[in-house]
Design goal:
- The chain is about 0% helix and about 15% strand.
- The protein is mostly beta strands.
- A 3-stranded antiparallel β-sheet has the order 1-2-3, with no helix packed on it.
Length: about 100
């Protein structure tokens, strides 16, 4: 991502970096990574980046599960398509994922 912002000397910005999602080595689902945010002052967003998706039954990292710079999320590994335009992804057929 690239952005150009005019900041004033002494102005406070906050950079909150999302953490990497975990890997579950017992073949169950693993959680996705956290989003990253850059805000001016207490709550004026400058850049917001969504986190990566979770994974179903994977014991290692897979490229498709990383976050995307598009308005549509990447599909999960052996999973459904990612969410789009701020909406979450589809759940599994069994209704538990």
């Amino acid at each position: 991502m690239i952005g150009t912002f005019r900041l004033n000397k002494g102005e406070i910005i906050q950079i909150l970096v999302g953490q990497e999602g975990g890997i579950n080595t017992r073949s169950y689902s693993s959680g996705g990574g956290g989003g990253t945010f850059v805000v001016r002052g207490a709550n004026t967003p400058l850049v917001i980046s969504g986190g990566g998706g979770g994974v179903d039954r994977a014991r290692s990292r897979h490229e498709g599960c990383d976050a995307s710079t598009n308005t549509t999320g990447n599909p999960g590994y052996r999973s459904w398509s990612g969410g789009s335009n701020g909406h979450g992804a589809q759940t599994a057929d069994d209704g538990v994922s």
